[in-house]
Specification:
This protein has nine helices and seven strands; from the N terminus they run ααααααβαββαββαββ. The chain is α+β, with helices and mostly antiparallel strands.
């Protein structure tokens, strides 16, 4: 036999608590009405009055004290008065309790029990439905299924609405944590492969560059173009190997105070060519955080270099530094073509690039460095056109 559901058990409990006492009290009333006609109170009083009269009659002619005679007369009057009042009471009750009153009480009791059962069922349904929903939602969270759409009518118990919101937030947080863990695991795997590739690339690159330098000193003029190509490509491979080696590597050394206003102002002046406009705005100076200087400098350098390249050597690059609620926000904006909405997450993935000679590791290393400093990076549109990279770091 299957076990009753929570709703069924709750309904039975409510029925026992409310309907059964009502039914017992109604049955007691019906029983009292049924046996009332059998209670002949006037008959008992009349027997007392009759025996009193017989006693007084038997004492007629017997000499008694005046006080005794007065007491006997008072006794007879009291018995007669009690008999009259008892008969009047019975007559009154008989008139007020019609013959069909018992059946009426039974029908009323049945209706009361039925209404109590209906109310109990409604209460059980109202209380059990949210719990069933919570159980179903926890199953969805376990199976990593999306949460149902949020109801807009606002009906139900307010406390369960708070619980629903908490479960929805929990599911979202768990999903974000899973995605972050998967991304971190993927980045660790990429980093391991990248370090191995960098190691294997550096071994042949060193003799190749030495050989190119030696050939340049004694090579005929017709070899010059080929040697330049070899030198340029080997330099590009060397830069790629350095980026490969940086991917997935934790910052070296101990974190130290870094003045972001000084660092960003200096880097902006060094990165923006004379053909472009560079603007630096700091809402507060100095803005000092505890960070690993070299990795953080490489990250901002990469962002500024990308901004300059996006503008094609013309246009504007702006850096805005602000502090709010214990968080430092660095916005690096350019006037280039911007980043498509569909690419705003993919550009931070390793090996994704839209550049002809890009490695696809620059922004991946930037995000990894920022996250290693318990920060975050996002990209949005620049007003008037372009892309704005926003880095948030804790103070």
């Amino acid at each position: 036999m299957s076990r009753l559901s929570y709703r069924g058990r709750l309904f039975l409990a409510l029925l026992v608590v409310s309907a059964i006492p009502v039914a017992l009290m109604s049955a007691a009333g019906v029983y009292a009405l049924a046996v009332f006609p059998e209670v002949q109170g006037s008959a008992a009083v009349e027997r007392v009055a009759t025996s009193t009269r017989a006693l007084l009659n038997s004492l007629e002619g017997v000499a008694v004290a005046p006080a005794t005679e007065a007491a006997m007369a008072e006794q007879q009057a009291a018995a007669t008065d009690l008999l009259v009042k008892t008969r009047n009471s019975e007559a009154l009750l008989t008139r007020r309790l019609p013959v069909g009153l018992g059946a009426s009480v039974i029908v009323a009791a049945i209706l009361l029990v039925f209404s109590t059962a209906v109310v109990g069922s409604a209460l059980a349904r109202q209380l059990a439905a949210p719990l069933d929903e919570v159980v179903e939602w926890t199953g969805r969270i376990k199976r990593r299924e999306p949460m149902p759409a949020e109801a807009s009518d606002g009906a139900g118990i307010p406390e369960f609405a708070v619980l629903r919101d908490s479960l929805r937030d929990l599911a979202q947080s768990l999903e974000q944590a899973r995605e972050a863990e998967l991304e971190a695991e993927r980045l660790r795997a990429f980093g391991e492969v990248a370090r191995r590739v960098a190691h294997e690339m550096r071994n042949p690159l060193t003799p190749i560059r030495l050989a190119v330098s030696a050939l340049r000193r004694g090579a005929p003029p017709e070899w010059a173009e080929s040697l330049e190509v070899i030198a340029a490509e080997s330099a590009r491979l060397e830069a790629m190997s350095r980026e490969f080696a940086q991917l997935g590597r934790l910052p070296d050394g101990v974190a130290s105070p870094v003045d972001l206003s000084e660092l960003l102002g200096e880097m902006l002046r060094a990165s923006v060519p004379d053909t472009m406009t560079g603007e630096f705005i700091a809402e507060a100076e100095p803005v000092v955080i505890t960070a690993h200087y070299d990795p953080l400098r490489r990250a901002f350098s990469n962002l500024l270099r990308n901004a300059v390249e996006a503008c094609g050597g013309e246009g504007r690059v702006g850096v805005h530094l602000g502090v709010q609620d214990g968080v430092v926000a660095v916005a690096i904006a350019d006037s280039g073509p911007g980043v498509a909405l569909a690419d705003r997450e993919r550009i931070f993935q390793p090996y994704y690039t839209d550049k002809r000679d890009g490695t696809g590791l620059g922004l991946a290393i930037v995000r990894q460095t920022i996250e290693q400093h318990q920060g975050s990076i996002t990209v949005t549109d620049t007003p008037g056109g372009g892309a704005t990279f926003i880095v948030r770091l804790p103070l």
